[in-house]
Write a structure and sequence with these properties.
heterodimer; A: 262 residues; mainly alpha; Cytochrome Bc1 Complex, Chain D, domain 2; 2 domains; two-stranded antiparallel sheet; 2 strands; 3% strand; B: 535 residues; alpha+beta; Immunoglobulin-like; 14-stranded mixed beta sheet; 12 helices; 16 strands
């Protein structure tokens, strides 16, 4: 403890500025410099709002800490000895505010932010191939063969692979990594099935619904108007969709999620 | 081995251009990396155990059969839907190799490279993130058995001589050689865009296209001069790209000549047509005078350009799998009355139905070339846009078409309001809303201008352009010589158009107001504070 006390104490106000500035620089270092993927301005504004609010809450937790924070500002206005500093600060602050207002008023040419839900909640039942499917209880009719008849299961996986390579690889890629030859031309980008956050988190019935009804079958919060996923029930049979689902899990080595313990 | 990847990234991010320091740094890093890899490669070939063909077969069955086929003949289930088709390994023809023209057998490193880096511009990805070096060696050993090369000694690597560094003199010497007697320009075109004068086929009878040399990210083996030198020297097996080092040929060139051509080809990279993923807004520039009418008008260059990837229409029937157009570059200019789009895309063939020469180089069923601009009929409220492919029943879109015409018909402009690709489309009178267009084709590139008044009489049917709003916009293109018509075409998803308004005096007014306001508050605060301090 004694060693810590030897360090000259940084005024509370400077601490606040340092912490906020440090966090901002941290964001910039990580996202702009290292990852090369800058955070959009509007999002950054949101983050910084919470950072500033949080920091101020911490620094004004007790009356004493609040006093320490506010005191130098009060002194600036009240202490005649600091009059020269006051004059400088009193000109710089409105100057900065005016500049911020000016920049804010400039028309922005940054594209609007499009937030979308990637795995929207599925409806409880859905009409596909002219039939009603209850997504809560729907199972892959071939899944049991993995244990019961491994040979037939392999054949079905191979059939699924053929469906995949003839239809899906253009966007989702040969390696199922979402980097197919046309992936870059699409927004949102095709899903990466190798990623632990995609099919590994989902039931096969969810995949069946997403494949069969495609982008236009998405609920509104998932912005169906921009997804390029085709409506596959127009091109594939029910069997083919279940087969391609087998292939997705087989190739990536992921396991589908299930509701119960069967 | 990483050259292709590095080059590609430089171009895609645009960092290789215009940022001198970074570019030099990257080039140095790349040089060091390549030298290191060569060094490791040299020692590794002797130190590493040669690949195990049996293990390689297992990898092949798991990873490669769906495209290249169970027998390695390139006849996997995907074959007919891929352009270019998957390689037939039984032919022992390897496009990207470093062994001389008369040598059939590549060095293992050639095969390793194609698997490691993939083939840019095709469906073949790089496998370095999935397969280990040993896996790739095993796979190479197996691939050689498919062609009966397992017992063969690798061929002699070509003589690179002394590399001629890139310089204006070398590039100029290369330019002359390129065009002399139409040596390279016969197939690659006068400006290197691979615009066809002949219908080329490979040994298996598949159509092949001379590379568009202005788009280096489509080079299968990178646009590094050393790689280009290698292609010129070895030729490309199975295709009509000849070797310019063939001792039996009169067309044989010296090593220095080949380096000069390589440097010239390297210089052809049209970096302004690079797709920058972050560039999703077309920023229309306001002009004082009229919006230019012809595509050649130099005033178009005043507007910043945005280049987007064109993807084939794989979404609604009938799907289209083998496109030829790959990117589209867009500019926009406007004034208080009118807005004009300038769209530009590389198309190797000028498709003129009825024309004999055009028919000769066309796939069956020659149609017009065409382009379309898609805009929502009404500006979206909130985030909801029309469905990106021809809108939907509740959100119709305007489609502005320009078609290139035939021997009997002039180029034409038309206007359609669409409500989904399966929904109802209404053909409209383009003249009535003042939609006009004009196009020109030059050395493998179409340039088309489409113009319309900012507002029309019928806001329920036509988009009314306004400054400051982000307007969704999408594009489609048809290469009529590639069997593209109706639903068979390439397209983009939604991007944004912004007519950037003139800010005027308002920001200054508001800034001044803010300054005075804060200053007054401060003075008031200082006065009360001093008064308090005194009392």
């Amino acid at each position: 403890m004694s060693t810590i006390k030897k360090i000259p104490k940084i005024p509370r106000l400077a601490q606040v500025v340092l912490v906020i500035g440090g966090i901002y620089t941290g964001f910039w270092l990580i996202f702009d410099l290292f990852l090369g993927q800058p955070i959009p301005k509007s999002l950054m504004g949101m983050y910084m709002f919470f950072v500033v609010t949080g920091v101020l809450m911490v620094f004004t937790a007790t009356e004493e800490s609040t006093r320490q924070l506010v005191h130098p500002i009060q002194a600036l206005a009240e202490d005649p000895a600091r009059r020269r500093w006051r004059n400088v600060v009193f000109l710089v602050v409105p100057g900065l505010v005016a500049m911020a207002v000016f920049l804010q008023m400039q028309p922005s040419d940054e594209a609007p932010l499009e937030l979308r839900s990637i795995h929207p909640a599925p409806p409880s039942s859905v009409k596909i191939f002219g039939k009603r499917f209850d997504l809560m209880s729907l199972k892959n009719p071939y899944r049991h063969l993995q244990k019961d008849d491994p040979e037939q299961f392999r054949e079905l996986v191979t059939a699924g692979g053929e469906v995949y390579i003839r239809n899906c690889q253009y966007c989702h890629g040969d390696k199922l990594d979402g980097k197919g030859p046309y992936a870059q031309g699409l927004n949102p980008v095709p899903l990466n099935f190798q990623d632990i956050g995609t099919i590994a988190q989902l039931q096969e019935s969810f995949l069946f619904w997403r494949i069969a009804t495609g982008g236009p079958g998405l609920p509104k919060e998932a912005t169906p108007w921009i997804s390029s996923m085709p409506i596959w029930q127009d091109f594939l049979s029910e069997e083919q969709i279940w087969q391609v689902i087998l292939y997705l899990y087989d190739y990536t080595g992921h396991q589908p999620r299930s509701w119960g313990h069967d | 081995m990483a050259t292709a990847e590095f080059n590609l990234r430089d171009f895609q991010s645009g960092r290789g251009v215009g940022q001198g320091g970074t570019a030099v740094l990257r080039r140095t890093v790349r040089l060091i990396a390549i030298s290191l890899m060569l060094l490791i490669g040299l020692t590794a070939t002797s130190a590493f155990s040669a690949g195990d063909a049996e293990k390689g077969e297992q990898i092949y069955v798991q990873r490669c059969t769906l495209c290249h086929g169970e027998d390695g003949d390139g006849m996997g289930p995907a074959a007919e839907r891929l352009n270019p088709p998957p390689r037939d390994f039984t032919m022992a023809q390897y496009k990207i190799r470093t062994t001389a023209f008369e040598e059939i057998v590549p060095v293992d490193g050639d095969l390793v490279r194609m698997i490691h880096d993939g083939m840019p511009g095709t469906a073949m990805p790089g496998w370095s993130d999935v397969l280990t070096e040993q896996d790739i060696n095993d796979l190479v050993a197996f691939l050689k058995t498919l062609a009966g090369l397992e017992e063969e000694e690798p061929g002699q690597i070509i003589d690179f001589g002394a590399q001629v560094p890139i310089s204006p003199e070398s590039v100029e010497a290369g330019r002359k050689l390129f065009h002399e007697d139409d040596r390279c320009s016969e197939c690659h075109g006068q400006s290197g865009k691979g615009d066809a004068v002949k219908k080329l086929k490979d040994d298996s009878g598949y159509r092949t296209w001379p590379r568009n040399l202005t788009k280096p990210w489509t080079f299968r083996g990178s646009n590094d001069p050393r790689d280009i030198f290698t292609r010129i020297t070895t030729g490309i097996a199975g295709t009509q790209m000849p070797s310019f080092d063939d001792p039996a040929s009169e067309g044989r060139l010296s090593i220095e000549q080949r380096w000069n051509i390589a440097n010239y080809v390297n210089s052809l990279a049209k970096t302004e047509k690079v797709v920058r993923p972050e560039n999703i807004v077309i920023r229309a520039t306001r002009v004082a005078g009229p919006v230019p009418v012809t595509p050649e008008d130099p005033q178009w260059q005043e507007a910043p350009s945005s280049t987007f990837l064109l993807v084939p229409q794989l979404i609604t029937p009938d799907r289209f799998f083998t496109p030829s157009n790959d990117t589209i570059t867009v500019r926009a200019l406007y004034n208080q009355d009118e807005i004009g789009f300038h769209v530009e895309w590389d198309d190797r063939t000028r498709s003129i139905p009825g024309d004999g020469a055009a028919k000769k180089i066309s796939e069956p069923g020659l149609s017009e070339d065409a382009v379309a601009i898609q805009l929502p009929v009404t500006l979206p409220v909130g985030a909801e846009k029309p469905y990106f492919l021809h809108g939907d029943s509740r959100h119709p879109v305007n489609l502005w078409f320009w078609r290139s015409g035939s021997t009997t018909a002039d180029p034409s402009v038309s206007l359609v309001t669409a409500r989904g690709s399966a929904g109802e489309t209404t053909a409209r009178d383009a003249d009535a809303v003042g939609l006009q267009g004009s196009g020109s084709y030059h050395e493998g590139t179409w340039q088309v201008v489409l113009r319309r008044s900012m507002t029309t009489a019928d806001p329920a049917e036509d988009l009314q352009f306004v400054e400051g709003a982000f307007i969704p916009v999408a594009f489609s293109a048809w290469d009529g010589s590639n069997g593209e018509r109706d639903s068979a075409h390439t397209l983009t998803t939604w991007y944004w158009l912004l007519l950037k308004p003139q800010p005027g005096n308002t920001p200054w007014l508001f800034a001044g107001f803010a300054f005075v306001l804060i200053l007054l508050i401060e003075i008031w605060w200082a006065r009360t504070a001093t008064r308090r301090a005194r009392s």
